[in-house]
Amino acid sequence: METKRFDRIVAILIHLQSRKIVKAKDLADRFQVSLRTIYRDIRSLEQAGVPIYSEAGSGYELMDHYKLPPVMFTQEEAMSFIAAEKLVGKYVDRDLSQHFMNAMFKIKSILKGSEKEWLQTIESTIVMSSPAQSLFNSEAPETLTLLFESIAKKQQTLIHYKGIQDTFAANRIIEPIGLFHEGGFWYVYAYCLKRSDYRQFRTDRIFTITSTEIPYTLQHPSVHTFLLQKKENAPKTKVRIRVDNEVVHFLKWERVHFGFESEIISEHTTEMTFYCRDTTEGFSRWFLMFADQADIIEPEELKDDIRQMLTTIQRRINKV
């Protein structure tokens, strides 16, 4: 028990050094202990001579210039860096990937010789395929870096952007609020000064990006608030389908993108329920991939959409 508490106190100290201000509740949530336990651990650090400044309603922070001695990593922690390095190399832009690689060299430099050899062995056994589509425009390799800087400094950003329905790319001045990954793409949620409204911009459609020193004009809600509102406000249609069990396992990775809610498994089939935002295009086209081994229970409108698509397909095939 004492060893576990000692490990937690050391981890709390590292956590304090990694952030400007840390709330007691955040520490309690991370380590899955009570607030009283966190207060006791903080007192133990203070009694050990760690200069911690606290303010009611704000949180804890280490006094300026206090630094920990060099940190040693466990093998498991070091292994997690390798996995992260592989992911970062494929899912962030070129500029940020290079920064991460430089940071990884620094991390690896403090490992023991045997640990470095162990990591090199593990590293050579992991291969990460590239995403099916480009996540960033090759002409804007610093997109994520500049967006992060803009958010941190609360300064406007100029982007040359081409929306999915736009004929040509155009300049937009935005106030970035946050980024999120959805449906295989990165998006930046931002206030667009041209539209005087909040919009989401897909990073692969940003042709150029330039930082400015112009401060934000408004106090914006968080990206979490936007995503919650987007989920709650989007009109949804209840869809129920029955799928042969022999193909159900092929659908489990994609169905989440179509509002999958629940399933009822029987001997030969599985009934799935969705609350879908786009049945006319998105869901209908996805359903055609396995339509020969599935039935539509509801709604009738979805059946009509599928019939119309099949009629069009047959007409185009017969025309060739």
Please characterize this protein's 3D structure.
This protein is an alpha+beta fold and 320 residues long. The chain folds into four domains: 2-62, Orthogonal Bundle (Arc Repressor Mutant, subunit A), CATH 1.10.10; 75-123; 154-229; 237-319, Alpha-Beta Plaits. 44% of the residues lie in helices and 25% in strands. It contains eleven helices and eleven strands. The strands form three sheets. A five-stranded antiparallel β-sheet has the order 6-5-4-3-7. The longest helix is centred in the C-terminal third of the chain and has 20 residues, at 300-319. It is globular and about 80 Å long. The model has no long low-confidence stretch (mean pLDDT 87).
Question: Layout of SSEs?
Answer:
Elements: H1 2-18, H2 24-31, H3 35-47, E1 52-55, E2 59-62, H4 75-91, H5 94-109, H6 113-123, H7 143-153, E3 155-161, E4 170-182, E5 185-192, E6 197-202, E7 206-215, H8 223-233, E8 237-244, H9 245-251, E9 260-265, E10 269-276, H10 279-287, E11 294-298, H11 300-319
Antiparallel strand pairs: 1-2, 3-4, 3-7, 4-5, 5-6, 8-10, 8-11, 9-10
